[in-house]
Amino acid sequence: MPISRAELHAEDAASLVDQLCERWSDAKEVDRSSDPVRVTFDEGSCFLQAQPDKLLVVVEALDDESHNELEGQVDAALDSLKGVELDIVWEA
């Protein structure tokens, strides 16, 4: 099961989690009852955890192809966040 993670410096990581959950709420299953927040996609899952000065993002999928596709979707969503400029580096 491929897993990758990124740590993104963010002044208000909780706001970023809110924006992402809102963006995905119509099309994806979003579980905000746990920490980290879990967003379930067809390809796998994305976990979001707000910390005081950073946003932790973990992407996991069943196979490499699905993982690459999901990582691209999450990347695009992170790039589109309002009012922030993030340097996204995925680590396997």
Overview of the molecule:
It is a single chain. The chain has 92 residues and is an alpha+beta fold. It has one domain (3-79): TATA-Binding Protein (2-Layer Sandwich). 30% of the residues lie in helices and 33% in strands. It has two helices and five strands. A five-stranded antiparallel beta sheet has the order 1-5-4-3-2, covered by helices on one side. The longest helix has 16 residues, at 64-79.
Topology:
Layout lengths: L2 E7 L3 H12 L4 E3 L5 E4 L3 E8 L2 E8 L2 H16 L13
Antiparallel strand pairs: 1-5, 2-3, 3-4, 4-5
Largest beta sheet, briefly? 5 strands, antiparallel
Give the CATH architecture.
Answer: 2-Layer Sandwich
Number of domains: 1
Extended strand count: 5
CATH topology: TATA-Binding Protein
CATH superfamily: Alpha-D-phosphohexomutase, C-terminal domain
**Overall pLDDT score:** 90
- The rough form would be described as globular
Structural class call reads alpha+beta
Unreliable stretches: none
Written as H for each helix and E for each strand, in order along the chain, the element string is: EHEEEEH
Q: N- to C-terminal separation?
A: 11 Å
What percent strand? 25-35%
Query: What is the helix tally?
Result: 2
How much helicity do the residues have?
Answer: 25-40%
